[in-house]
Design goal:
Structural class: alpha+beta
Helix content: 40-55%
Largest sheet: 2 strands, antiparallel
Number of helices: 3
Radius of gyration: 14 Å
Distance between the termini: 40 Å
Strand order of the largest sheet: 1-2
């Protein structure tokens, strides 16, 4: 569980939208690094889940984007 001050929570929630896709719809989650437990930003449920399924691996995410761009 993240230990955040109210000010930190307010700052993370300030964008009011997913920092990856921009949606304001549905549930928004405070994303965090599972190794350091430090918060990173605000993501929608779908982006947060996708990031977790891809194991926070930027190279894997890039490769998946490259795959989609080929088709």
């Amino acid at each position: 569980k993240l230990k955040l001050t109210q000010e930190e929570v307010d700052n993370l929630l300030a964008p009011g939208k997913c920092e990856a896709c921009g949606t304001t719809e549905g549930r928004l989650c405070i994303d965090h690094d599972h190794d350091t437990e430090k918060p990173r930003g605000l993501l929608c449920h779908n982006c947060n889940t996708a990031l977790g399924l891809l194991k926070d691996d930027a190279e894997r995410i890039t490769q998946l984007g490259n795959y989609l761009n080929r088709y």
